[in-house]
Fold this sequence. Notes:
Blueprint: H1 3-23, H2 37-41, H3 53-64, H4 86-98, H5 109-125, E1 140-144, H6 147-169, H7 175-181, E2 182-187, H8 192-201, E3 204-208, H9 218-230, E4 234-241, H10 253-263, E5 266-270, E6 295-298, H11 300-303, E7 311-315, H12 318-325, H13 356-390, E8 395-397, E9 405-410, H14 414-427, E10 433-437, E11 440-446, H15 454-474
Helix pairs in contact: 4-13, 5-13, 6-8, 6-12, 9-10, 13-15, 14-15
Amino acid sequence: MDASEFRKRGREMVDYIADYMETIDKRRVTPDVQPGYLRKMLDSRAPKKGEEWEQIIKDVEKTIMPGVTHWQHPRFHAYFPAGNSYPSILGDMLSDAIGCVGFSWAASPACTELETIVLDWLGKMIGLPQIFMHDSGLGGGVIQGSASECILVTVLAARHQAIRELKNRFPFVEDGVLLSKLVGYCSKIAHSSVEKAGMIGFVKMRFLDVDDNYSMRGYTLANAIEEDRKLGLIPFYVCCTLGTTACCSFDNLNEIAHVTERENIYLHVDAAYAGSAFICPEFQHYMKGIECVNSINMNPNKWMLVNFDVSAMWVKDRHVLTSALTVDPLYLQHHHSDQAIDFRHWGIPLSRRFRSLKLWFVIRSYGIEGLQKYIREHVRLAKRFEALVRNDSRFEVLGAVTMGLVCFRLKGRNHLSQRLLRAINDSGKIHMVPAMMNDNYIIRFAVCAQNANEDDITYAWEVITTTTEDVIASVDI
Ligand code: PLP
């Protein structure tokens, strides 16, 4: 494809994307296909000769689209939102075209510098203390590919710091022995990526009980630490979740931070979803105690209109992170290393895309006020949905509705709600996913679509109530 054909095909693609977005509600939200459907439709070998673009693009609608779950669909209420907006898509286009690999400042100065500037913007927008900013010279923000990656690198940083301190005290004890003593903590409803980070990092992770509000409390953590110290273990890491995946509950950061400060333990905050809401001052109270944490992550690619993959992470002391992740072969060195940031030392991969472009485009296009409006509208719609559920005595709402998520269930045994959700999802009319809250099976209703409105809420509730009637009629309670 040459530049003139690219211009033509590019325009067609933009039209295809805009048409897709504008007519997405005419499609089924979830695909009606079985595993292996695509293999039956496509050739089992790659083409020997290049094909016509027209033929390729025809196959998108014929073979790919039937197997797509439409995350941007107004009837999609599963998981959490997958951020998306036109400025973000354009940012990705430009990033792909520039095609730089910004692992160091020298590898593409603008790529590194824009990332530091935009993460300072965003850090200030969500109310982080100045020490977390690049312009403090101490901490700073970095874009990782996912919240899971953020959590993993913080476990690695905390582990490195703990082993180094222990080595000073016990220089003749093997690293492996010290490692076997380390223990980290999170709540039972922290995201599974914390457990995975423990697995990869080869450190024990304890999953602590939550209170009646699904919140991990300081006293629970303090008791666990005391028990573990008595057993000869060495507490080194805590992950505090602000906005849990199951029900968007908030651990008590302020209490937890008191404990980790007293005990000299690394404290990380995972605010993957709810972190975007902190751009609204009325939600920043959940971050009380933030000045005491070592690091925090939030995903603009969930709830801030930015396409995957932009997971923002800030550290208070950049050296704690970089000293755990630095290897420095000659071919990657450059003569500005002393004054410049090299993001390859802030994460696992070497190669990095120019992801800050789309974040910059989005923040500049919407402005802080536009983004606040978007968040507040989602929260308002979630409250509207909550009111509908609470008005129907067959249902109950579990947990507080604070953001864009409502967790509800049919009163009674779990299998009723299980059947209900299965029937709704099978219909393809709306899409939701379940979670467990203590022993209760709940259905999660997340407000996801960028332009979600009252009609979408009304429609979803109609589907839920009509399906409920069918399920109740068919189930032997
Ligand atoms: N943490 C929380 C609270 C989440 O809700 C999620 C995903 O929904 C994650 C971490 C993992 O996010 P990612 O897919 O970016 O790794």
